[in-house]
Specification:
This protein is mainly alpha-helical and 223 residues long. The chain has 7 helices and 4 strands; from the N terminus they run E-E-H-H-E-E-H-H-H-H-H. The chain has one domain: Vanadium-containing Chloroperoxidase, domain 1, CATH 1.20.144. A two-stranded antiparallel ribbon has the order 1-2. The longest helix has 27 residues. It is globular, with a radius of gyration of 19 Å.
Length: 223
């Protein structure tokens, strides 16, 4: 039975949030520039870009993502017939079921992998903030969702998409009330913030990736 307040399994509020974000960034593209300018110094450039802790957090995502996937696979393999968790709100449920594992792997492949990294980033060509002429580079600014021929990879953020995938993992296997969800969300927000502050992405790049991952999750969850 399809809920009346959903479209393709996605709540209307989530669709509204996505299109409202898109409309806002298209109507006021200077918002992206204003946010990026907060982290830019005319003499030093994007101040945190290249700092050891920025690089550590940037590269940590690959390690965290691979670790989570390996742990999920091992947990599923060791408990392929787990008892169903009687309370989905509990912080300590059993290992992932085969359906949950398939759902999460499909989400990772289809949204961060295919849609974001192989689709949007490869074909929209939006220049990154650090490459713009107003920030000391040579390229021109393009609003979010608008195709560009500058061969940039700014829209949308692959790092943000992968990080918010971890938030979905926590929500699916534990709950949005669990400490795991809070930790995953804090980590994803940190990843998104450093990508903006280092000049790697605009705010709209991060927001779009976060919303697309959650929309993709809800669509797959319906099937």
């Amino acid at each position: 039975m399809i809920a009346k307040d959903q479209l393709l399994g996605v709540p209307y509020w989530l669709w509204i949030a996505f299109f409202a974000c898109a409309d806002l960034m298209l109507a006021f593209p200077e918002l992206d520039l204003a946010i990026s300018r907060m982290f830019f110094d005319p003499q030093a450039g994007f101040v945190i870009n290249g700092l050891w802790w920025e690089r550590l957090l940037y590269h940590s995502l690959d390690v965290v993502l691979i670790t989570v996937l390996v742990v999920l696979l091992i947990a599923w393999w060791r408990g392929r017939q787990p008892p169903r968790c009687p309370d989905r709100r509990a912080d300590h449920c059993g290992p992932p079921t085969g359906r949950q594992l398939l759902l999460l792997l499909a989400l990772l492949a289809l949204v961060p992998g295919l849609l974001v990294n192989q689709g949007l980033k490869e074909h929209l060509g939006r220049a990154r903030p650090v490459d713009l002429s107003i920030f000391g580079g040579t390229k021109s600014f393009t609003p979010a969702f608008v195709p560009s021929t500058q061969d940039g990879g700014s829209f949308s953020s692959g790092h943000a998409a992968a990080a918010f995938f971890l938030v979905v993992v926590a929500a699916e296997l534990r709950s949005v009330r669990s400490i795991w969800f809070v930790l995953a969300l804090s980590y994803a927000l940190s990843i998104g913030l450093i990508r903006i502050a280092s000049g790697g992405h605009f705010l709209s790049d991060v927001l779009a990736s976060a919303l697309l991952v959650w929309i993709g999750y809800r669509v797959l969850l319906r099937h």
